Amino acid sequence: MRPAQKLRELLAQPGMHVMPCCFDGLSAKLIAAAGCKVSFMSGFAVAATRLGLPDTGLISFAEMVDTLRNCCAAAPDMPIIGDGDTGYGNALNVQRTVTEYARAGAAAVMIEDQVSPKKCGHTKGKQVISRAEARLKIRAAVEAARKADILVLARTDARAVLGFEEALARCQDFVEEGADIIFLEAPENEEEMRRFCATIKKPCMANMVFGGKTPVLPPARLEEIGFKLAAYPLVLLSAAVTAMQQAIAALQPNSNVAQPPQVSFEELKKVVGFPEYYEQEARYVAAE
Hints:
This protein has 288 residues and is α/β, with parallel strands linked by helices.
């Protein structure tokens, strides 16, 4: 079954899916191994891990699609939604982004209405394109997606710039254009979250950023509100940064910092696939 069809079936089932977000092959593999049914490749996390830079439009289309390909290859049975940012240009660029994300193995691609270069949805300085242009970009994305067999997750960042009512109106435009999943970024209270889900008759996604603009609610509450997907874009990245900082500090001369918990070397080899590699390698050893 192709990734898009797997995601369609998940969205058609009752309940909400929690999505720890991936940013490389290893994180995608760990998420799938934990039994998660779907993940989201976070642009913030990819920019941080691949470039060591902020999510401010500095990472390129080629770098993002290359990372997406690695994530999908590492977790081939788990649908992954790829962060397509603004589509990296105009409506025709959007169509190329959609097509190439499908070729990389993504189940869905997210396209947003920010002005390029975009900003992280929970940071300052965001601007959005006009409502008409945003609608046309999603129309272009949907047209390309139907040929490429990939879902479209349409996102608006208008809440922070033009207010909640404008953001909700854009979401309704995206529904009319045929987007499969709708994402209103950074609602500022539970009432706005409820209105969004009650108004939009397509699967809705929540973005849970600890310390961000949106209340971080328990998964059961998000499901009760009406969300079908809940992305946690920075949980794995933040945990990894904390562990790496502590591990580096513990290695310094005269340090009194304890090493953080670590998997054994044997477990690490299992995680990255040495046993499977050795098994396959043995099949191709020539007899002497």
